Amino acid sequence: MLLEIENKIDRAILDPEHFNEISSKKEIAFRNALYIKKIADKSLSIKMKYKLYNRANRINNCMSLWWWNLYKENKIMDFQKVWRCKDMYCPNCRAVDLDIQIRGYRKYFNDMIAFGYNPYFLTLTIPNINLDDIYYKIDMINKAFLQLWLWLNRDDKKGFKDRMFDVKAATKSIEMPINKENKLGHLHIHAILFIDNESESDFEKNIEAYYRKKSNEIVLLSNADIEMAKLWTMAVKKENVSQYKKLSDSWENNYKCDIRPIDLRKGLNEAFKYSFKDTDINDYDIFKSVFFGFRGHRIRQSYGKIKKFELKKSKEFDIERVPAEISDYLQFDEEPEILKTHNVKELNQEYKDFKKISRKKAYRDLVNIKD
Asked: 121, 287, 316, 357: which could join 262 in a potential S-S bond, CB 3.0 to 4.6 Å?
């Protein structure tokens, strides 16, 4: 069973809705850049002011320069590339990077499946946190996840010898939605694990745990949930794994965790969808807490056999083409002119009569599981 990431369509027509969405996200980027400048104004360091102002200006100028092949007679504009800031506070760049990230993992995920390792989706939580504690708490759960990985992966004294299964590879992402009423962050980890030597019965959720008011349901746990919760709680609290059997199995005494087989068509987006919501950081004080809290941390990280993958640090969105020839779009032969446009407004107004196409990989990919 292989993971294939394919295009929704072979040929993309960039309609006005596409550019309207970019414009909407640009408004959010402008707001975030304004907040970064506000942080800079309050900084006592001249170097920090300079650095933050440059960062804010890059965000403001993101997608301000587009390259096209212009076919005047055919009224066609063939997209080539666009300059990007690639900043985490630019929603447009985050969306593109997410797609590149998912595509980049394809080879490594295929390797894991070919080796016979099965993918599982893991959620690890801690109690809600004060926004002033974001930096410390992210550092804490990053270190705890590394410890958990060692317990589940290693066969030497660093491993947990009584574990139910072996984890051969993993990739994790940190996420934190914010409750704007009580100003608390729900910091947690989503991870995809590739597992070997597991028993299906260990993942059957048949143990009654607690009532969840929001969904009006009784939450059921599996034996694997209980083991992961105990190990995760010990990792966060920096306890020795030799004390595992002394810990209670009760969910009330451990941090909540959930592990289940993953449907990769949905799980990839769930695992990597966002670190924070733009709607959560539209308040300056919250933005400032998130800005300093996430600063310097690795939000996404891989372990084991897929550790080699890294997102390329390119400022230009220029990934491979789909199998479509420009002649498919032209009514008659014509040599293109090189055109540079400077913003979305220019595209929608001065070139509104031109059909804009992209023969690049589509922004959003279909993830298909094929036997």
From this structure: 121
What is the domain partition of the chain in residue ranges?
Answer: 7-86+315-360, 106-304
* 322-364 pLDDT per residue, tens: 546 888 889 999 999 999 998 888 888 889 899 998 876 543 3
Say what the pTM is. Answer: 0.85
For residues 303, 121, 266 and 139, what is the CA-based torsion angle, rounded to 10 degrees? Answer: -60
Burial class of residue 320, CB neighbours in 10 A (0-12, 13-18, 19+) = exposed
Which of 227, 96, 93, 211 is CA-nearest to residue 160?
A: 227
For residues 77 and 356, the answer to whether their CB atoms sit within 8 Å is: yes
Question: In sequence order, what are the residues at sequence separation of 6 or more whose Cβ sits closer than 8 angstroms to the Cβ of residue 241?
Answer: 151, 160, 231, 234
Output the pLDDT for position 295.
Answer: 94
Q: Which two tokens stand for residue 231?
A: 């190990």
Would you state the structure tokens that stand for residue 237, as one six-digit string?
């609290």
Name the residue among 301, 306, 304 with its Cα closest to residue 189. Answer: 301
User: Both tokens of residue 85?
Assistant: 């800031």
